[in-house]
Amino acid sequence: MNLHQFKFVQEAVRRNLNLTEAAKALHTSQPGVSKAIIELEEELGIEIFTRHGKRLKRVTEPGQHVLECIAIIMREVGNLKRIGEQYSAQDTGTFSIATTHTQARYVLPVPVARLRERYPKVNISLHQGAPDQVARMVIEEVAEIGIATESLANYPELVTLPCYEWQHVLVLPVTHPLARSERLTLEDIAAEPLITYHPSFTGRTRIDQAFAQRQLEPRIALEAIDSDVIKTYVRLGLGIGIVAEMAMADAREADLVTRPLGQLFGQNVARIAVKRGAYLRDFVYHFATLLSDRLDRDLISKAMTGHIDHYEL
């Protein structure tokens, strides 16, 4: 057996048992992938997949155990590569970060710039996506670290640690009647056309839950994944907006008024995620400390080895 066979099995599962798609992803031929999987099954003396003709139908029970072992082997192969890079490349290489648009646009610029100052030979690759996509990118080792608010803590394959708390804010033109309100209510907001995040982004779950608990149905005029898009449509008069507070840190937003909404929607927690059992290079630990002064190498190491059962801000 060899690593190529393990990669082919993993990719077949990732591509929903479509060998043609797996072959494309691996830059090889479909017959080559099929042959390698069959040879591995023959060597092990079991079927990893059930088949209908030449098509893979599902993973067998022994196949599930094989997949678990392959995942451990491939994770450790990745760790070996990172250990080699750590000690031979002298703080060079590529650092891949998976995150959402809000984090990439408003939170990461300063930490990334400081990391580059400390490690000028490290190339940084940003991958943006929905929180669930961020989690998958870390699990599949497309990225070494993930940063998001939603979903990350829901994956047992990941070790997650909280970075910082933030709240939503209401964004509205300075001339809007609600701009003069001292204390806003959910009823006030629900009565207005609302522009806010897509349901899978930037703490939208808390917003929906707050309205549902009061049996209110907000008038959603527009949903977006980009805070700047939300602000643009607020300026055009389509409605009032709800964005993350870090999206309003620019002093040049003088034409808009913000009102804190933590008392209505609660506090959100941004988290970092790394793959459980992964080997982290020095600059990954350093980057985590730049994201939050509550994180340090010792704490992250303990979490990675399972010596911390629960950690919150």
Summarize the amount of helix as a percent range: 40-55%
Major β-sheet profile: 5 strands, mixed
The whole-angstrom Rg is: 23 Å
Secondary structure: number of strands:
12
By helix and strand content, what is the structural category? alpha/beta
Strand content: 15-25%
Distance between the termini: 46 Å
Q: What is the average per-residue confidence, as pLDDT, rounded to a whole number? A: 89
Give a short overview:
The chain has helices at 3-14, 19-26, 30-44, 61-88, 101-107, 109-118, 131-139, 186-190, 204-213, 227-235, 262-265, 282-291, 297-304, and strands at 49-52, 55-59, 93-99, 122-128, 145-148, 158-166, 168-173, 193-197, 219-224, 240-244, 256-260, 268-275. The protein is an alpha/beta fold and 313 residues long.
Question: What would you say this structure looks like, in words?
Answer:
This protein has 13 helices and 12 strands. The mean pLDDT is 89. α1 crosses α3 (30-44). The longest helix has 28 residues, at 61-88. The protein is globular, with a radius of gyration of 23 Å. The protein has helices at residues 3-14, 19-26, 30-44, 61-88, 101-107, 109-118, 131-139, 186-190, 204-213, 227-235, 262-265, 282-291, 297-304, and strands spanning 49-52, 55-59, 93-99, 122-128, 145-148, 158-166, 168-173, 193-197, 219-224, 240-244, 256-260, 268-275. The chain is of the alpha/beta class and 313 residues long. A 5-stranded mixed sheet has the order 4-3-5-12-6, sandwiched between helices. Strands 9-8-10-7-11 form a 5-stranded mixed sheet. A two-stranded antiparallel sheet has the order 1-2.
